[in-house]
Amino acid sequence: MTTHQETLPEARQRTGRETTLPRLVDGGRFDWIFIALCTWVIIGMAMDAWAHSHGQTDESFFTPWHAGLYSGFTAAVLFIGATLVVNWRRGYRGWGLVPIGYPLSMAGLFLFGLGGFADMIWHTLFGIEENLEAIVSPSHLLLAIALGLIVTGPVRAAWYRPETRPRSPLPLLLALSFTWNAFAFLTVYIHPFVYMHALGGTEQVQQLGLAGILLQAIILSGIVLVAVRRWQMPPGSFTLIFVLNVLVLTAISDEFRLIIPVALAGIATDAMNTRWQPRLHRGWKLRLFAFAVPALVYLGYFVTIMLTGRVAWVVHLWAGGVVLAGIAGWIGSHLLWLPPIPAAVEP
Q1: How far is CA 180 from each of CA 108, 155, 173, 273, 301, rounded to the nearest angstrom?
Q2: Which residues does the chain have with pLDDT short of 50?
Q3: Exposed, middle or buried by CB within 10 Å (0-12, 13-18, 19+), for 31?
Q4: Nearest to 247 by CA among 236, 258, 239
């Protein structure tokens, strides 16, 4: 690991009686190891979510599904601990013990451990949750929040680096997808890819379905637009982000037919981003891009259901859902690309 611009000997600073080194900015090797451990945790959480949604859990906390999840967490804690020890010996102190962007991930690991202990107590007192209960259980919500803090570390690290084109984009892309997964775990009870409300015809089910499309379109648009504004995303970036996200969701719901339309939407997003360069514009290219991305995802969603089954919604509802998703992205672009603050007007 090296610091930005200066070599370690040149960057030594005196603080009191102790010689310390400035904070680590460039931790490229750290990014790769940490995102590999995050992948382990995400896979473990997806396995646990699948077990809960398929009734494969028993009344014990000590299950194979929990073993996969908490072994990944343990590996991440050991890696962070080893990093702290090594960097302490090198002369780093305080926040400088880990690269910029990762202190919140350390806090997330602490909360994850706390959430795991709370989950064990909760299961002992109240039994194992299934379906919706497993989503909104307080201990599981704490784990989901902690997961969000953990997996966003590579995103924060890349954000603080000066380059607009990431030198090693894969850790950033995986972290963006895992961040999307963290949001999905918190809102999975209203996710159209998990609960197929389009197959139901009652008005209440239709309302839930439209609300789910709107909420998930807002989250999707936020991830995409923040990434586009901050970085020059290399071709294939959004295809990878989209596919990884849908793989986790379909592992829970068994709706594997949705992988193809989401992958196609990712390819279209990459093509539009490369062709239009929306990050450089505030005009129609940006607005059309912001509208098209979520609209294409949910257009593919409904077309796939039509081709492989039956959509219970009439055309007014499902077509309106596609446009509603696009509107969410369009509004999001106006929030992220605000006009300059006007100068004060003299009286």
Answers
A1: 16, 12, 11, 19, 18
A2: 1-17
A3: buried
A4: 258
How is residue 215 written in tokens?
């909420």
Residue ranges of the alpha helices (H) in the chain? 28-53, 64-90, 103-126, 132-136, 138-151, 153-160, 169-187, 203-230, 237-253, 259-276, 284-308, 315-336
> What pTM did the predictor assign?
0.84
The HSE-up count of residue 107 (CA atoms within 13 Å, CB side) is 10
Count of CA atoms in the C-beta half-sphere (13 A) of 6: 10
In angstroms, rounded to a whole number, what is the distance separating the alpha carbons of residues 289 and 273?
8
Per residue in 161-173, pLDDT tens? 888 888 889 999 9
Strand, helix or coil at 36?
helix
Instruction: Please report, as a single letter, which amino acid is at residue 279.
Output: R
Which residue type does 16 have? G
What is the number of other CB atoms lying within 10 angstroms of the CB of residue 235?
A: 11
Taking the C-alpha atoms of residue 303 and residue 203, their distance in angstroms, rounded to an integer, is 21
Cα 207 to chain centroid, rounded: 26
The first and second tokens of residue 118, run together, are 């709370």
